[in-house]
Write a structure and sequence with these properties.
mainly alpha, 9 helices
């Protein structure tokens, strides 16, 4: 935009001739110019009458405003930009400074025998409330790094576990040995190899003996149950005539059954049917 404004203004077009159609259209008539056309021409003449100095002063003012705007934008950006360093409190800064001092003086303060110098009470952290109890043996040990504390302890632990595993494999795992007695003279009950011919006979005999033992056990159980009962009825023997009547009735029933089975035709129906 500024480059276009810095260029020289273009020359105005020549005025139209009196006989041209444009001049006829702009004129109100053949007598002269109207009021509107005269005002337009005056504005055109005032615009084209601006010199190069006026344009240059305008461009200089615009450049000054642009530079001020850019300076304000830079100030706002620098004020709102986040800092590239963390905000550390005063106590953390003091702790870090003391640590750097201890690390710097650690190599020079070490004694020749490898023992650490005893720290004076003034060097202890006054702000720390926890004071661990350090033994004399622990105080004589060298300081370890984070890698030695984490990975070193893990390696030693793995080596110790592997050693214990190897010792367990070398050791006799089956330490318990049961004592087995040898029953001499006692063979198999079935004796299939020694006496296979009498196997079925011996099994039948053993089964009958088992059944007889079961019956005896049942009789003993029934006798025990009856012994608990206080009431014992007296059973009298059946008279002779009753036995004779029962025997005759049984004989008649057997004779009727034999007659019914001997007839081939169907049995006659009763009268009431």
């Amino acid at each position: 935009v500024f480059s276009r404004r810095a260029q020289a203004p273009a020359e105005p077009p020549p005025p139209p001739s009196p006989g041209s159609p444009a001049s006829c259209g702009r004129r109100g008539g053949p007598g002269g110019l109207s009021a509107s056309s005269s005002s337009v021409m005056s504005r055109c003449r005032s615009d084209t009458s601006l010199g190069d100095e006026t344009v240059l002063r305008f461009l200089q003012r615009q450049n000054i405003c642009e530079e001020g705007r850019r300076e304000r934008l830079n100030l706002i950006e620098s004020a709102t930009a986040p800092p590239l360093r963390p905000e550390i409190c005063e106590r953390s800064a003091r702790l870090a400074e003391r640590r750097q001092q201890r690390l710097a003086s650690g190599g020079n303060a070490s004694s020749g025998d490898g023992k650490k110098p005893a720290s004076s009470p003034t060097q202890l952290e006054q702000e720390c409330t926890f004071k661990p109890a350090i033994t004399a043996l622990a105080a004589q040990r060298d300081a370890r790094s984070v890698e030695e504390i984490s990975l070193g302890d893990q390696r030693r632990r793995d080596a110790h576990i592997a050693k214990m595993r190897d010792d367990l494999k070398k050791r006799d795992v089956s330490s318990f040995a049961p004592q087995v007695k040898d029953y001499e003279g006692i063979g198999s009950r079935l004796r299939i190899i020694k006496d296979p011919d009498t196997l079925l006979e011996r099994m039948t005999k053993a089964h009958k003996a088992q059944i007889s033992r079961r019956e005896k056990e049942l009789e003993k159980a029934q006798s025990k149950e009856l012994a608990c009962c206080t009431f014992t009825p007296e059973v009298k023997p059946v008279p002779g005539f009753v036995r004779r009547l029962a025997a005759s009735a049984r004989a008649n029933r057997e004779a009727q059954e034999s007659e019914e089975t001997g007839d081939e035709g169907p049995a006659p129906r009763p009268d009431w049917h």
